[in-house]
Amino acid sequence: METTFVIIKPNGVKGGLIGEIISRYEKSRLSVSAMKFKTIEKSEAEGFYAEHKERGFFPELVAFMTSGPSVLLALSGEKAVEKVRTINGATNPANASPGTIRHDFAPNTGENIVHSSDSTTSAAREVAFWFEKKEIASYPPYSHVRG
Ligand code: UDP
Ligand code: MG
């Protein structure tokens, strides 16, 4: 079992896509372990995306990520990190495969609807960045419903 971290970015929330997006993860047998509805603050966006702080797009990225509420999620299941990267699609929606979230809903790279961790190491840092231990649930995934 693996856990990854996801953000439904402000345009996903504004576009009424919270349910659609979470549904895609759940249909891939990933379980919600933690969830928060929150407007990210400037300092939080800067800290979270610190690896990109020298990039030209950084100020725009921070501005976009703080432009409205987001949904923060920890998702657990087999190969959760890789699975979610596949479901989300390429960073640039123009390169994203049909059926991926970014292909289906994202207008451009800067507003690409979702974030997800790129490795188990990043996932551990990112889950811990946004959630306290006590906010993360642990329960048997898919012990019922989907066969
Ligand atoms: N980004 C951007 N322009 C770029 C590259 C990235 O605006 O040329 C933004 C985009 O929102 C992306 C985020 O910065 O999701 C983080 O970039 P990364 O390369 O980590 O892509 P991701 O892991 O989100 O696919
Ligand atoms: Mg990334």
Describe this structure in words.
There is one protein chain. The protein has a single domain (2-40, 69-132), classed as Alpha-Beta Plaits (2-Layer Sandwich), CATH 3.30.70.141. It is 37% helix and 18% strand. The chain has 7 helices and 4 strands; from the N terminus they run βααβααβααβα. It has helices at 10-14, 18-27, 42-48, 58-65, 80-88, 101-105, 120-130; strands at residues 2-8, 31-38, 70-77, 114-116. Strands 2-3-1-4 form a 4-stranded antiparallel sheet. The protein is globular and about 40 Å long. The structure holds uridine-5'-diphosphate and magnesium ion. Uridine-5'-diphosphate binds at residues 52, 57, 61, 91, 109-110, 112, 115, 118.
CA-based gyration radius = 15 Å
Order of helices and strands: EHHEHHEHHEH
* CATH level-1 class: Alpha Beta
By CATH, the architecture is named: 2-Layer Sandwich
Bound molecules: uridine-5'-diphosphate, magnesium ion
The total of beta strands comes to 4
**Uncertain runs:** none
Structural class: alpha+beta
Helicity, in percent? 25-40%
Tell the overall outline.
globular
What CATH calls the topology is Alpha-Beta Plaits
Q: In whole angstroms, how far apart are the ends?
A: 18 Å
> Number of helical runs?
7
